[in-house]
Amino acid sequence: MDTNAGEQQLSRDMELRVSDILQVSDPLDSFDFNPAHYVNNIFPDEESLSNVDEVLEKLQLKAKKLDHEIKSLTRRQSSVDSEGLEELREAKRAIQAREAGSLFVKIKDIQEKARQSEDMVQNITSDIKSLDYAKRHLTTSMTVLKRLQMMVMAVDQLKEMTEKERYRESAQLVQAVTQLHQAFRSYKSVPQIDRLFRSIASIEDHLKKQIMREFENGFNGSGALVGKVATLHDACLLADVLGESVKTWVQDWYLDLQLKDYRRIFRPHEEVSAIDNVSRRYAWLKRLLKVVDEDQSGIFPPSWAMGEAVSLRFCTYTRDDIREILQRDPPKDVKILLQAIHTSMDFETQIARRYTRAGMTDSERHALNEKFKGSIADAFESSLSLYIDSEDKLLSESITAYKTETIPQDDASMVVIPSSTDLFYHYRETLTQFARLSTRQPLLDLSKVFGKYLIAYANDVLVAKMPSLDAKSITQEQIKITCLTINTCDYCSITTAQLQDKIKEKIDAGLRDQVSMESERENFVSTISLAIRTLIANVEASYDIAFTNMTKMPWSTLDTVGDQSSWVSTFQSVMAECMQTIGKAVNNKRFYRSFCDRFVESFTLKYLNNITKCKPIGEVGAEQMLLDTYAIKTTLINLPTHTRDKEDTPSVMYTKLVTRGIARAEAILKVIMVPVDPPNEFVEKYILLIGDKNIGNVQRILDLKGVKKADQQPLIERFQQKFSENPQLIEDSNIMAFDTITSAPPPATGGLGASINTTIANATFQWSQFPVNLPTNIQSSLNPLLNADTGANAKTTRLNENLRKLVMSGMTFRRDTHDK
C-alpha cells in the first residue's frame, strides 16, 4: 500500500484487478480518474459549453444516487455485522455440542471399561481377600486366646501367692493381671470372661484385707513396730499397684497411728498445749521423726516420703490447735507470743531443710520450702496485732534510748549518727521475719508503725541533738553534731525510700498502692533545712564577738586608713575554724553549697544591720569600713573551698550572690564617704550610687554620717528638688530595708530544694532593686578577686595587692571630692 497525503490507497495492480472483477465502465469509478481529462471529454470545444447546466444536473443526480447507495450499504452492513456475530455464536454452540457429545460418549466408554476391569480384578482377587480376612481373624483369635491363657495362668498364680502371703510376687502378678485386664474389657459380655473378672476382683479384695491386717498386726497401739519390715515393705509395694485408694488408706492409717499420742497429749485444753510450751510440741515430733526416718524407713517406698507426710500432718494438727488456743485464751505477755512465733518459724525452716535431698533442682527445693512455710506460723496471723503493739513499744523505747545516745567526738570516720543505722537494721530484720508470717493487712499496719517512728526519730532525736537557734555560745563539737545530723537525715531519706520499695515488694499486690513513706522522707528533708538554719545561727553566734568589736571602733574620729581592722581578723579566724569543721563534716556537697548560699544571704543582712550600729561614721571611717568590707567579701567568696576536696572552687552563681549582697554595703559606704558640703556633690553621688528618690533612705544615710536633724532639712530640700528634675528615678531601692532584720530568715516550705531556690530568688530580687555603680578605679581593683589564684601564696599576695589598691583608690576618691 502507498501512502499519499495521510490517506491509504490500493496498489495499481490491485485496483486493476478490482476493476476487472467489478466490470467498472464509468470513468468516475476508475481508480486513475483525472478530473481535467473528464471535463475536456465532456466539453471538447466552446460550443459544447452551452450544455453546462444539463451536465451539472446529471452530475447532481448521480451524486444523490451515490449518497443513497452509500447509506443503503451502510445500513445493510450494520445489520450484516450483528447477524454475522449471531451466526458465529450459533456455529460455536453447534461445534461445542458436537464436541461435548463426543466427549461424553468417550467418558461413558472409559467408565464402562473401568467397571469391567474392576469386576475382573475383584473376581481374580476375591479368593485372596477371603484368605486374608481368614488369616487376620485367625491371628486375632490366637492373640486373644494367648492373652486369655496368660491371664488365667496369672490369676492362678496370684491365688497361690495370695494364699502364701507372698506380697512382692503378688504385686508383680497384680500389675500383669491389671494390664491384661484392660485388653478384655470389650469381652465382658462373655460369661467365661465375666467370671474371670469377678475372680480377679475377689482376689484384690482379699489382698486389701491382708494388707490392712499386716499393718494392724505390724504395729502396736502406740505406733511401735512389732512386725517384720520386709513383709510390711512388700505389702506397701502391693498397695502401690492395687490403686490409689489402698495406698491412701495405708498412709492415713499410719499417720493417725503415729500421731495418736500427740493428739492425746497435746489436747487444746491441756496445760502442756499452752502457747509458751509450743517448743515441747516440736521436740515431740523430732523424737517421732527419729523413729520414722531411721527405725521404720525401710517399710515405705522412698516415693511415699512418709517422714515428710508425718511432718505435714503434724503441722496441720498443730496449726489448728494453736489457732483454737489463741482464740480462746490469747497470751497476756507478748514476749511469749513472739517466742512462740519465732520458734515455729525456726521449726518450719528446720523441717524443710531436713527433707532437702542432694541433687534436688532449684524448683524442687523451692516447692519443698513453700510446702512448710507458714504451715504452723499462719495460725498466729490473727494475733499479729499483739506483735505489732510489741514492736511499737520496742521502737518507742529505742527512740527514748537514742535521745540519750552519746556521740563520740574523736571518731573521724563517723559520717552518720550510729543510732540511724541501728534503727534501719532493726527495721530490715523485723520486716524479713514479719513477711514470713503475713503479707496482708498486718504487714501494712507494721509499715505504718515504721513510718511513725521515722518521724519520731527525726523530730525527737535528730532535732534534739542540735543546739538551739538562739544559743549564744557554740563549740566546734556542737557544730559537728549539726553536720552529722545533715548527713544522717540524707542517709535516712534515701534508706526510707528503699524501705518503702522493699515493703511493696513483699506485700500483697492489692495493698501496694497503700504503702507510702513520702511524708517521712519529706520530714527528713525538712530536718536538713532546719539543720542548715541551725548551722547558720551557730556560725553567727561564733562571730558575734567580731561584730561587737566592730561597733566599738571610733568610726567617726578615724583620721587615717590603714590595713584591715582587728575585728576583721577575728571574723576571718572564726570563719576559718567553723567552715573547716563544716566543710569536712558535711558529706554531701549539695548541702554544703546550700549552706553557703543561705549563710551569705543571712550574713549580708546582718552585716548591713551591724553597720547601722556603728553610727556616726565619718568619711575616713567609711573608707576604712569599705576596705574591711572588701576583706569580708574575699572571705565569703572563699567559703566553698573549705571542703574535703581541695580542688573545689566557688561557682559563678555563688560569686555573683556574694557580690550582689556586699554591693549594698559598698554603695552605702561610698555615699557616706562623700562630704555633705557642697550639698550638690553629695546629692549627685547619692543619685549615682543609690538611684532612688526615697527621702527615708536619704535620712537614714544622713543619720549614719552623723548629720544632725537640724542640718538635714536643707539637704533634704535639695534632694527633693533634684528628684523632681530626675523623674526616671525609682521610688525605693530598698537599700536600707535591712534595719529591722535581726536573725536568719526562716526556711521556705516545700523541702530543701524549694528553700534554696527561694533564698536565691529573694536575694536576687532585693539586691537588683538598686544600681551599684562603682568608680572605675575601684572596679579594677575588685576584678582580680573573682579570678584569684587558689594557691595559698597567690591568695596572700593578691589580697595584699588588692587591699593596697583599694586604700589608694579610696584616698584618691576622697581627695577629689574635697578639691571639688
From TrEMBL:
Gene3D superfamilies: Vacuolar protein sorting-associated protein 53, C-terminus (1.10.357.110). Residues 32-403 form the Vps53 N-terminal domain. InterPro entries: Vps53, Vps53_C, Vps53_C_sf, Vps53_N. Keywords: Coiled coil, Endosome, Golgi apparatus, Membrane. Residues 49-76 form a coiled coil. One of its GO terms (cellular component) is endosome membrane. Its main location: membrane. It is a peripheral membrane protein. It comes from the Eukaryota. Residues 623-707 form the Vps53 C-terminal domain. It is found in: Endosome membrane; Golgi apparatus, trans-Golgi network membrane. Belongs to the VPS53 family. This is Vps53 N-terminal domain-containing protein.
